[in-house]
Amino acid sequence: MDRIDAMQAFARVVETGSFTKAAETLQTNKTRVTQLIQQLETRLRVKLLHRTTRKVNATADGAAYYERVVRLLADFDDAETSLSAESAVPRGRLRVDVPAPFASLVLVPALPDFHARYPDIQLDLGASDRKVDLIDENVDCVLRGGELTELSLRARHVADLPLGVYAAPAYLARAGTPASPQALDDGQHVVIGYRGSRAGTPLAHTLHRGDERLQVRGRLVLTVDDGNAYLAAGVAGLGVLWLPTYMASAPLARGELVPLFEDWQLDPMPLYLAFPPNRHVSLKLRVFIDWIVELMARRAPGTMRMP
């Protein structure tokens, strides 16, 4: 039995709750993972896992062993990194998931710079607004806007994105220009709702001007769960929408959107880069995180919150 392989298999089973999912993330088969766990339990003479038809959970001994195993595997990776002459060059596959608009408007256009710096990193990019399970899907990190609800994840706050309120000229010609945010709640105007992966219903928005604070929800006729579709609906004149300025800048320049309530402000949207807990931060992930922080500092000066 290779003890390192066995410990890696055990840690991944605990993290995914499944022998099958653990095998998939380790790029092996379920039989091999099962054999490694059985050999590990035989060697240690303790039962590490409770197996049921639905879930695999660590026993009390298994949970304690898992905490030690995670640290040992991290130390092992660090030892290899420090001794390898090639370790100064980040390499390998990195799986990342980001919101679709951020991918198309910010990340992908900047990737030539990333690949020029790190040609040996193979980036596997998911572009979606859905909630990704980092452990089950073996994703190294996700970039998400808004406050994180998964408190178990490790995260780095990389930026604060300014927000604004916008509408298409066609919509304003049809419905009139709202004089104030309160007008969005009077029934004459409609707003486009965005339902993110973590919210069952679209959230109200809070605007402030001096000491005044208003919470606006508006009348919904359309709700979407994808950022690109949300922007397209606004440009099509289907209602008023709230956007990060990086999404609004090009439609504004083309005259497809018009800013509203410019004397009012919205709290900025925090942007986080999150990655699994109890997982060693590899060199390839570390350089990607640092590059994202640098990218946001270049694109949005003044919106960064330094770690």
Give a structural overview.
It comes from Stenotrophomonas acidaminiphila. Belongs to the LysR transcriptional regulatory family. This is LysR family regulatory protein. Keywords: DNA-binding, Transcription, Transcription regulation. It is a single chain. The chain is α+β, with helices and mostly antiparallel strands and 307 residues long. The protein has three domains: 3-85, Arc Repressor Mutant, subunit A (Orthogonal Bundle); 89-161 and 270-299, D-Maltodextrin-Binding Protein, domain 2; 163-267, Periplasmic binding protein-like II (D-Maltodextrin-Binding Protein, domain 2). The chain is built from nine helices and 15 strands. The strands form five sheets. A five-stranded mixed sheet has the order 4-3-5-15-6, with helices on one face. Helix 2 (19-25) crosses helix 3 (30-44). The longest helix has 24 residues, at 60-83. The protein is elongated and about 75 Å long.
Short description:
The chain has 307 residues and is an alpha+beta fold.
What descriptive keywords fit this protein?
307 residues; Arc Repressor Mutant, subunit A; D-Maltodextrin-Binding Protein, domain 2; 3 domains; three-stranded antiparallel β-sheet; 15 strands
